[in-house]
Every structure is written in structure tokens, then in C-alpha cells.
Design goal:
CATH topology of the largest domain in chain A: FAD/NAD(P)-binding domain
Strand content of chain B: 25-35%
Number of helices of chain B: 1
Shape of chain B: globular
Helix content of chain B: under 10%
Number of strands of chain A: 19
Radius of gyration of chain A: 21 Å
Distance between the termini of chain A: 35 Å
Distance between the termini of chain B: 29 Å
Radius of gyration of chain B: 15 Å
Oligomer: heterodimer
Low-confidence stretches of chain B: none
Largest sheet of chain A: 8 strands, mixed
Order of helices and strands of chain A: HEHEEHEHEHEEHEEEEEHEEEEHEEEHHH
CATH superfamily of one domain in chain B: Folate-binding superfamily
Bound molecules: flavin-adenine dinucleotide, zinc ion
Mean pLDDT of chain B: 93
Number of strands of chain B: 6
CATH architecture of one domain in chain B: 2-Layer Sandwich
Shape of chain A: globular
Helix content of chain A: 25-40%
Strand order of the largest sheet of chain A: 5-6-4-14-15-16-13-17
Low-confidence stretches of chain A: none
Structural class of chain A: alpha/beta
CATH class of the largest domain in chain A: Alpha Beta
CATH superfamily of the largest domain in chain A: FAD/NAD(P)-binding domain
Largest interface: A-B, 22 and 28 residues
Structural class of chain B: mainly beta
Order of helices and strands of chain B: EEEHEEE
Chain lengths: 417, 100
């Protein structure tokens, strides 16, 4: 792997930048691998990277039906935080946040992790109580999260409409200073390059169409649009398409796939210093390094695989943004798109073995899995390599729904991202 | 935005409706007698198909009634709508309407 540094940039500049190599190969699929990962989103690529790096398993293929990073990884609004309520979630998302802090160095790739602070606004008494409860629970778990009153919110984020006329006034907010954003494409590309360098084959335009099993039920390999590929271990990380892929092995999941939309404005000069989220009035916003305001909200109402949603959802989001930040009322929106997110009943992910021996699944990240990418890949690689969960993902089973041990972040927070 | 045909009122904008999830999931007749796995099937497992999905809608800002719809989740095209309580209609081979 060609190493990236200020020095290499300088040296390549002298050669007219003609000496840069491709960041990863584009190999033909082999007939057999030790592990096949289905889905080259951030989570799948991270899984392959940690399989190679931490478990010495390098005979790995990542199969992608489209292009790598073209799913939700390349469509999300990149909010990163770890201030979840329950101990299980806090441990999982904090594991990821700690990895974000050193990720650019680890991958030798600038993922532009920017801990600019994530401020979650409270608009009513319930919000205030709920966020303060989060602050206290987070403190017990050693996770930074602090309560700001309305004036402190205004000081932290001056464009906010604090004290002005508003249907749902800003009463305060919970701030995680280590939260922020990262460059979504760079995360996929950085993991792809680093995994490739350790021998992982990333195979694009290769759709998994079936899961072949032995007479005793164990996984034997996958049927793909480019032929059969043998593997005793298959890890499915297919986000919105997980129900479809696991259906190929006869496994039914507690999952539904919904369109989630986002939009960006025309680029403007730096005007918004942090990430602001409001779950009560359904909007969140941050400014990308290109200058666009990156805006999103809740899902559409119905299940779909169409990767687009309805206009009234985006409209409703912009209504809320105009209330929160009146100076953006004349900002023009440039693009609007959708991704398909896989949602579990308790809004927590599943990172686990399945009832089929050799088949593993990492799904259910719903509207908020980008922030977990490094941690998710890290513990999923462990689960596949050792055929048992890491301590951190042990609670995130499929069986929790049968056993009634939900990790109910949805009820706890009504939080989208 | 979907244009949803209410079987009682005709086609109306999606804004008039609320979504009710997968249709034809019957509550166990004798809840006390079923095991935990059957509860999971009833409460949590969903077909979530990439293709035709039978789903419930309620015409909230209209007649107020629940009814069912067959919608293709790839194109979001609605192929059929029928009153609650009726069995799922068979689709014609081109998927464009119900078989008569
Ligand atoms: C609009 C939007 C905004 C979001 N905002 C945030 C946010 O601010 N913060 C946050 O933390 N999260 C956010 N999310 C959620 C986040 O994007 C996802 O949870 C996360 O990116 C999932 O990563 P992944 O690698 O599992 O999925 P993906 O990147 O979707 O990767 C799955 C891959 O599997 C491939 N695949 C599917 N079926 C097959 C098959 N049969 N064969 C081969 N390959 C297959 C797909 O093509 C896809 O590339 C948002 C999502 C959306 C859509
Ligand atoms: Zn009606």
C-alpha cells in the first residue's frame, strides 16, 4: 500500500502527480474463501479490515452488488455521537467513538472525523427530563454529555432561534462535545484500501442471489451473479436488504426497511459551527466542509426499497429548520435523496450468529449506524472469527426479541440518529 | 407522495392516511397457549419483501376506516386495494391489477 503523508504528497507533486496508485485492486472472484462478507458498505468493509488486522483472517471476499459505499454509507448525514441511554448501547457506540478518534492514523486515510459537538435540543418538559436522564446515565458510563440551558445553547450555536417566536421554543439541550461528523465516502474508501492491502478481495458488481447449505444445514457458500463462491462462514451486512438476503437461507427477522431522506443546500461560507438535532420537531443540521448545509429528519411512513421518499417529508423537515435557524430561510436546496434503512422494533442493531451454522448477521442499524461503523465492524469481525460474540455485542442478539430483553432506545429517547 | 385508492372513498393523497404495517397478521386465537417463538412471529417478525407487500392503511382524514393495499416496494406502485377482512387478492401475471 502506498503510504499517504505530507512527504509523499510533496514527492508526488514533483512528479506531476502521475505516480499515485489505485487505492484498491479490482480482482476476479476466487472459487473459495474462508469468509465471505455480503455488502461493501462501511460496516462490511470495516468487518473485513478487522478480520485481517486483528484475527489474521485474510482469505476474505467482500461482495457488493453495486459499487462500494453506494448504499447508506454514501447517503447518510454522518452524525457521530455515543450518548445513548442504556448501558449496552452506550458501550457499543462508545467503542466506535474511541475508534473514530484514531481512525485516520490507523487507516493512513483522512476520514475527516470532526468532533465539533452534537447538540440535541429540548422543546418541552418531557425532552428536558429525558435529556437530563441521558446526561446522568452517560456520566455513570464515563461518556461525556452535558446539559446546556437556552442561553448556553445560543452561546454554543449562535444561529439558533433562542428566545424568538417559535411554536416549540428551545428550552435547552444536551451537548456531547466529542460528537461530530466524518466524511462518509472517505470511511468506505479508507477501510477498502486498508483491507485490500491486507489481502481482502473487494468484488463489486457481484450480487448475492442465494445461500447454499450442506445437508446438515450449515453454510456452504453463496450463489452470485458471478457464479458460486464457496465459504464456510458468511457475514451479511446488507443494511436495507438484510431481510432479502437472510430470506435466501430461510431466516425471518424482526426487521422492516424504510426510506430515509436527506438534503443539502447550496454551499455557503462557514455559518454553522456544530451539529444540531431536534427530535421533537424532526430535523437536524450540520455544515459540510464543502459548505453545504446537510439536513435530514425522520423516515417515510411505509416500507420500501425504492431509495426515494415523499416530498412532504422533506418539506416538513425544512419547516422545522426554518424555525430553528431563521437565517437559512432563503437558502436554496441543491439535492435530495433517499436510502433504505433496516429498522428493528427496539431501534437497536443485531450483531450476532443466526440459527444457520456459519451464517452471521450485522443489521438493524436503521437511521443511525454510520456513527457505529468502526465499532460495528470490529465486534462483528470478532464474532465471525471466534464464532462467539464479543462482550460488547453479546446483548445484540436475534433471540432478545424472544427472551424479552429488548434494548429499547426507541422508547427511551424517541431519537432518530 | 403516494396516491392511495381508498376502497370506500377513491384515490386520495398519502397525507390523508396513516400507515398500519404488514397486513394479514392474525392475533393468536388462544394467546395463553402459544410458546415464545410463536409470540416472536406474531409480534416482531415481518416479511419485509422486495416486491409485492400486503399492508394496512387507515383513511385517517377521510372515512376513518382501515383497509389493505398491495404495493410493489421497488416501484411503490399500488396494484390493489381492498376492504379489511377480505382475503389477499391474487395479482394478474403482469402484476398490474387483480385477477378476476
Ligand atoms: C438519509 C440517511 C441519513 C442517515 N444519517 C445518519 C447519521 O447522521 N448518523 C448515523 O450514524 N447514521 C445515519 N444513517 C444510517 C447509516 O447510513 C447506516 O446505518 C449505515 O451507513 C449502514 O452501513 P452499512 O455498511 O451497514 O450499510 P450500506 O452502506 O447500505 O451497505 C450495505 C451494502 O450491501 C449491499 N447489498 C445489499 N444486498 C446485496 C446483495 N444481495 N449482494 C451483494 N451486496 C448487497 C448494498 O448494495 C450496500 O452497498 C443515515 C441513513 C440515511 C439513509
Ligand atoms: Zn376512505
Amino acid at each position: 500500500m502506498q503510504s499517504y503523508s505530507a512527504f509523499s504528497l510533496f514527492r508526488q507533486a514533483l512528479g506531476g502527480h502521475a505516480g499515485w496508485q489505485r487505492q484498491w485492486r479490482s480482482p476476479q472472484p476466487r472459487t473459495e474463501y474462508d469468509v465471505v462478507i455480503v455488502g461493501a458498505g462501511g460496516h462490511g468493509l470495516a468487518t473485513a479490515y478487522y478480520l485481517a488486522k486483528e484475527h489474521g483472517i485474510t482469505n476474505v471476499a467482500v461482495l457488493e452488488k453495486g459499487w462500494l459505499g453506494g448504499g447508506n454509507t454514501g447517503r447518510n448525514t454522518t452524525i457521530i455521537r455515543s450518548n445513548y441511554l442504556f448501558d449496552e448501547s452506550a458501550a457499543l457506540y462508545e467503542h466506535a467513538l474511541k475508534l473514530w478518534e484514531g481512525l485516520s492514523q490507523d487507516l493512513n486515510y483522512n476520514v475527516m472525523y470532526s468532533p465539533r459537538g452534537v447538540l440535541m435540543l429540548a422543546h418541552n418538559t418531557h425532552d428536558v427530563q429525558s435529556f437530563k436522564r441521558h446526561v446522568h446515565a452517560n456520566r455513570l458510563n464515563g461518556i461525556d454529555n452535558e446539559w446546556l440551558n437556552a442561553e448556553e445553547c445560543k452561546a454554543f450555536c449562535p444561529p439558533l432561534n433562542v428566545g424568538g417566536a417559535m411554536r416549540y421554543p428551545i428550552l435547552g439541550g444536551a451537548l456531547q462535545r466529542r460528537g461530530g461528523t466524518a466524511r462518509h465516502d472517505a470511511v468506505a474508501w479508507g477501510y477498502a484500501r486498508a483491507a485490500d492491502a491486507r489481502g481482502v478481495d473487494i468484488i463489486e458488481n457481484c450480487e448475492v442471489t442465494g445461500i447454499r447449505r450442506t445437508v446438515n444445514g450449515a453454510v456452504e457458500g453463496v450463489e452470485t451473479s458471478r457464479g458460486f463462491i464457496r465459504a464456510r462462514k458468511v457475514g451479511v451486512v446488507a443494511a436495507g436488504h438484510t431481510s432479502v438476503v437472510l430470506g435466501m437461507a430461510g431466516v425471518r427477522l424482526p426487521l422492516e426497511s424504510y426510506p430515509l431522506q436527506a438534503l443539502v443546500s447550496e454551499p455557503v461560507k462557514p455559518a454553522f459551527p456544530c451539529v444540531v438535532m431536534s427530535n421533537t420537531i424532526h430535523a437536524y443540521i450540520s455544515q459540510s466542509d464543502k459548505g453545504e448545509m446537510v439536513i435530514g429528519a425522520g423516515t417515510d411512513a411505509y416500507t420500501s426499497y425504492s431509495q426515494r421518499g415523499a416530498l412532504h417529508i422533506a418539506n416538513h423537515t425544512l419547516d422545522a429548520i426554518c424555525e430553528l435557524v431563521p437565517m437559512f430561510r432563503r437558502l436554496r436546496m441543491l439535492r435530495n435523496w433517499g436510502g433504505i434503512v433496516d429498522v428493528t422494533p427496539d431501534r437497536s442493531p443485531i450483531i450476532a450468529r443466526t440459527p444457520v451454522p456459519g451464517l452471521y448477521v450485522n443489521c438493524g442499524w436503521g437511521t443511525g449506524g454510520f456513527k457505529a461503523t468502526p465499532g460495528s465492524g470490529n465486534v462483528f469481525a470478532w464474532t465471525i472469527a471466534r464464532d462467539e460474540p464479543h462482550r460488547i455485542n453479546a446483548p445484540f442478539t436475534i433471540e432478545r426479541f424472544r427472551d424479552g430483553i429488548l434494548i429499547d432506545e426507541s422508547a427511551a429517547a424517541a431519537v432518530a440518529h | 407522495m403516494l396516491l392511495i385508492p381508498c376502497p370506500h372513498c377513491g384515490p386520495r393523497a398519502e397525507l390523508e392516511f396513516s400507515y398500519g404495517g404488514e397486513a394479514h397478521i392474525a392475533r393468536p386465537v388462544d394467546p395463553a397457549s402459544i410458546d415464545d417463538d410463536s409470540w416472536v412471529t406474531f409480534l416482531y417478525e415481518r416479511s419485509n419483501p422486495r416486491g409485492v407487500h400486503a399492508e394496512r392503511w387507515r383513511h385517517l382524514h377521510g372515512c376513518g376506516r382501515f383497509f389493505n393495499v398491495l404495493r410493489d416496494t421497488v416501484s411503490d406502485t399500488i396494484a390493489a386495494s381492498y376492504p379489511a377482512g377480505q382475503p389477499r387478492p391474487a395479482l394478474s401475471p403482469d402484476g398490474k391489477g387483480t385477477k378476476r
